[in-house]
Design a protein that fits this description.
mainly beta; 8-stranded mixed β-sheet; 12 strands; about 55% strand; globular
């Protein structure tokens, strides 16, 4: 079992920045891929970014490329998402996911482990 706890969400103005963190605990020594998803009100959950264990492969949704950066510190069992140039359409609950399958840099198939989510609100 892996437990995930997100933090770092909040309210920010258009063009601002936030850094999300996802702390993993439990069975964290198996070398799994991790990713971020988001869900806006009335919309389906969508993938945002993902990274393999070593950090050598990353995936980004087209909507966030060039603005968001995913990273991880395996020594701290923590995944990060640096979000810059935020837009109102980035408003959503952001979820951390672990043990998924990263298909090159093209797609991330979510794993069974989810965090509780953290709210990001971008005001116009």
């Amino acid at each position: 079992q892996v437990q995930l706890v997100e933090s770092g969400g909040g309210l920010v103005q258009t063009g601002g920045s936030l850094r999300l963190s996802c702390a993993a605990s439990g069975r964290t020594s198996t070398g799994y891929a991790m990713g971020w998803f988001r869900q806006a009100p009335g919309k389906e959950r969508e993938s945002v970014a993902a990274m393999n264990w070593s950090g050598s492969i990353t995936y980004y949704a087209d909507s966030v490329k060039g603005r968001f950066t995913i990273s991880r510190d395996n020594a701290k069992n923590t995944l990060y998402l640096q979000m810059n140039s935020l837009k109102p359409e980035d408003t959503a609950v952001y979820y951390c996911n672990a043990d998924g399958k990263l298909v090159g840099s093209y797609y991330y198939l979510y794993g069974v482990y989810w965090g509780q989510g953290t709210q990001v609100t971008v005001s116009s």
